[in-house]
Amino acid sequence: MASTSLLPKTISPFLTNPPSSLPSAHFTKPSFFTPCTRKPTTLTYAKKKNPWLDLFDDGEDPDMEYGSLFADGKQEEDPRPPDNPDNPYGFLKFPMGYNVEIASLPLKIRGDVRRCCCVISGGVYENLLFFPAIQLIKDRYPGVQIDIVASARGKQTYELNKNVRWATVYDPDDDFPEPAEYTDMLGVLKNRYYDMVLSTKLAGLGHAAFLFMASARDTVSYIYPNVNAAGAGLLLSETFTPDSTNLSEGGYHMYHQMIDWLGRPFRSVPRQPVPPLRVSISRKLKEFVEAKYRAVGAEKGKYIVIHGIESDSKATMQSRGDTDSLLPLQVWAEIADAMRDFKPVFVIPHEKERENVEEIVGDDTSIVFITTPGQLAALINDSAGVIATNTAAIQFANAREKPSIALFSSEEKGKLFVPNAAEKKCTIVSSKTGKLKDIDFEDIKQAMQILDLSLVLA
Asked: Which segments show compositional bias classed as Basic and acidic residues (predicted)?
C-alpha cells in the first residue's frame, strides 16, 4: 500500500471527458482503418465521450457482461454507520478508521453517486425551480447525500427542501471572488469527496477549472453558447449548451437538459420520471408565520396573498428571465378593492414599502413583512389563494396546490413559466402590449370571479 500511494494520480478523467456539445460526427476514424466490405451503419455504441481527446473511444461495450460484483439496477442505500460521540467536533459521519477517500470498484463501474454537490446560479426563483432535479437525484441514486452551493439569497430556499444535507453560501455568479473565499470553497469541496458536482452557472474556462479542482469523479455543467465556452469542455465530464446566455429565460423547464441527462436510462435502470415541484414546510415555520398574519387581522384559509409589489428590494423573489414582473401599488389597490369574500394580505419585501401601501391602499390594510422564501411559502400554505406577478409566490402556490392568478407581461411568458396552468389551478392573465403595467384590469377582475367561485365550491 505504501508504494502505491506514491504513484502519480491518474489523469483519465482529463483524457476521456469532453464537451458533449461538440458533434462527434466531425471526428470519424480514418478510412484506412475501416474494412473494405461495407456493412449497414447501425450504431450499437454509446455516444462518444470525448471526440476532442480520444478519436477511438466508442463508449462502453454493449456486450460486456458483469458478474455478481457489478450488479445491475440502482445502487443500494448504505446502512448508516454509528456516530462517534467522543469526537470533540461533533458526531462523525463515518466510524473511526474508515478512509472516506477510498471508493469501491463497483461504485466506479456502475457510476454510483454517494455524495453529490449542486452549484446553483441565481436567486430564490432559480433555486426553487431546481427542486425537481434534487428529488430526481434522490430517487435515481438511493442513499445519496446532496449538498448545495448557492448565493446568500438562494441558500434561504433550502429550508424548504428535506433532501438537502448542507447548504453553503458562495456566490457562483461573482466573476471576481475574493482569493481567500475562492480557495476556501475549493478546500471545502475537495474535503467532502464528492462523486458528482453539478453546476447551473454557464461555465467558461474559469468556472470549469473551479469545478475540475473540486476533484469529483463527474463534473457536469452548463456552458456558454458562444466563444466564451472555449476550453471549458476539456475539464468537464458532461456539458449542456442552453439556447441563450440567460438560462432563466427557459422558464419552468430551464434545467430540462440537465434533468434529461440525470434521469437517463442505464443498463437495467429505466428512465427516471421527473417529479413535480414540491416544498416541505416545518412546523416551527408555520407557527411563526401564523403569528404574523394573525397580528394583522387575517385568519387561516380566509385571506388572499398579494405578492409582486414594485420595489427595488432584493427580496422581491422575481426571476432573472422575466425582469418585467412587478406591478405599481395603484394597480394592486384596484385589485384589493375588487375583493369581496376574502381579505387581501399584502406582502412587502422591505419595511420602507409599508408607508406607501398604507397611503395608497388604506390605513387598515393587512400588511405582512416577509423576506425569506420559507415564510412566504408558509403564508401561502395557510391562505385561500394567491394573486401575484411572476415571482416565487406563483411557484409556491403551485407546489402547495393553492388556486392562484398569475399576472404576466405576455402570454408567451405565462406559458413558459407556468406550463399546464389549468392542472395547477392557476389562471394566467397577460398584458396585450407586452408590458406588465398595461395589463387590463377587467381581465384581472374576471379571473378573480373565477377564483372566488372555485374557492366557494372548494
From this structure: 73-83
Q: What is the largest CA-CA distance in the chain?
A: 88
Answer whether 149's CB lies under 8 Å from 172's CB. yes
* 3-class secondary-structure state, position 259: helix
Rg of the Cα atoms in the chain: 25
Would you say the pTM of this structure is higher than 0.85? no
Q: Where are the domains of the chain?
A: 105-263, 284-457
Measured in residues, the chain has a length of 458
pLDDT one-digit tens code per residue, 102-127: 556 666 777 889 899 999 999 999 99
**What are residue 380's phi and psi, to 5 degrees?**
-70, -35
Tens of pLDDT, residue by residue over 401-437, are 999 999 999 999 999 999 999 999 999 999 999 999 9
If one counts every other C-beta atom within 10 angstroms of the C-beta of residue 61, the result is 10
C-alpha cell at 42: 447501425
> How many whole angstroms separate alpha carbon 380 and alpha carbon 304?
8
E strand intervals along 297-419: 303-307, 343-348, 366-369, 385-389, 404-408
The CATH code that applies to domain 284-457 is 3.40.50.2000
